[in-house]
Design a protein that fits this description.
Blueprint lengths: L2 H7 L3 E7 L4 E6 L2 H6 L14 E5 H8 L6 E6 L5 H9 L4 E5 L2 H10 L11 H15 L8 E5 L8 H7 L5 E5 L2 H9 L3 H19 L11 H23 L3 E5 H6 L1 H11 L5 H9 L17 H14 L1 H17 L1 H10 L1
Parallel strand pairs: 4-6, 4-7, 5-6, 7-8
Antiparallel strand pairs: 1-2, 2-3
Length: 343
Amino acid sequence: MSFRDDMQASPTLYPLGVDLKADGVQFVQLSRAEYDAIGFHDRRMLTPQTKTAWARYAQVEEAARGLPVKAHFIFHISHVGSTLLSRLIGAHPQAFGLREPGVMRAIAEVQLTLGGPGCPWTNEEFTKRLWLFLGIWSRTFAPRETSVIKCTSYVSEMAEMLLERVAGAKAIFMYVAPEVFLPQLLGGAMVDIEGKAASRLERLHRRLGEPVWKLEALSPGERVAMSWLSEMLSLQAAASRFGSRCQWLDFDDFLSEPQAHLVAGLTHLDLDDAPSQAQAVLAGPLMKQYSKATQFEFDAGSRAKILEEARVKHGAEIARGLAWLDGAATQWPRVRTLLAEVL
């Protein structure tokens, strides 16, 4: 088969990443079983044995031209059970789960620089390339399937744009309360915070309309709280605009009643036979595995133990983060509205 035939036939030829300077796209071949087994569909899947190949973007554009766009989305604020939800939804026979496409992250980073001197694409080129890759991500292995794309947390900034451009797309917005997010991130995932703290603060300032805080003045707990607020305001903006196409899901609520919330999520995404499908998948092993690496056992009890240990160890920073959020809510009506709506 030709490159175009392979691209048009199925998701087997998968765009793993992009080189913006060389304008190239890196590909890997994945079977349906490999898609389902992999935690993240980005460079984290690579092993020394993985074979990849590069193509010029112009070749990819030619090969993928005309692919229809049809997808739903899972947006989240980081470390809130979105990988588990993606696996559970992906077990439905009408769903094809994609988890954090690496190219989507690259596109989100470009989107933040649009119009600036360092941006590699014009607005028109950005729109064209985003649509092309949405077509690529919409490919499924069976006609009855719909792609359900779990985006990386900071892609939440694009939630409005994606819902606007993909007609009929629905989204699930996953989050936890600050009282849970703070110990969870302070207890072992600060690298996720520090790596994107500057861009999240810039995004937050854009939404509030003025630069209020300096990153270097924020303590670790305040940086975690700021990251929570930045991503949540992105989701709130999309939810305010698209209403019933968006469904909020607190991961702790999900854990307390997984059957009810999984049924609600499957129904929201227009997937058939939600009650029986939810019951079947919840009876399987997924709820007892660490979703990012399924060879390890992990469940709600394990999570609760880790959170309690983090609350003891990081109590002072948790208090600083919560106080920072209270201060932001006092100063900014939209922050007060967000806290009132989702907590």
